[in-house]
Design goal:
Elements (H helix, E strand, L loop, with lengths): L4 E4 L3 E2 L1 H17 L4 E4 L5 E2 L1 H16 L4 E4 L3 H9 L3 H5 L9
Parallel strand pairs: 1-3, 2-4, 3-5
Helix pairs in contact: 1-2
Length: 100
């Protein structure tokens, strides 16, 4: 990845898929040299592991000083984030936070 990149979450992201998806996203972020967008709009079957994957992506991007925008989070994921007290962290990665 040499330019701004789009990453896409799968339709299903539960504990069973979390480690693999997290590794894929981390690898993409580690090879990126500009802002990335993480598209969660396909997400339709998930558990709290999806939030862990998102937080890991935010942490990796922050450690690399990369912009990371998270777009398309389903309402149920936003509700889950709010329940766990994570909505502020995820809102820091809203699309307007990404500069290309």
């Amino acid at each position: 990845m040499t330019a701004s990149s789009d990453l896409v979450l799968p339709a299903t992201l539960t504990h069973a898929q979390a480690a693999k998806v997290s590794q894929q996203i981390e690898a993409a972020l580690l090879s990126a040299n500009s802002a990335c967008v993480l598209d969660a709009s396909a997400l339709n079957h998930f558990d709290s592991s999806a939030l862990a994957v998102l937080l890991g992506a935010c942490r990796t991007a922050s450690q690399r000083s990369l912009g990371l925008g998270i777009v398309g989070l389903p309402p149920r994921a936003l509700q889950l984030a709010k329940l766990y007290g994570l909505s502020d962290i995820l809102s820091d990665h809203a699309p307007q936070a990404v500069t290309h």
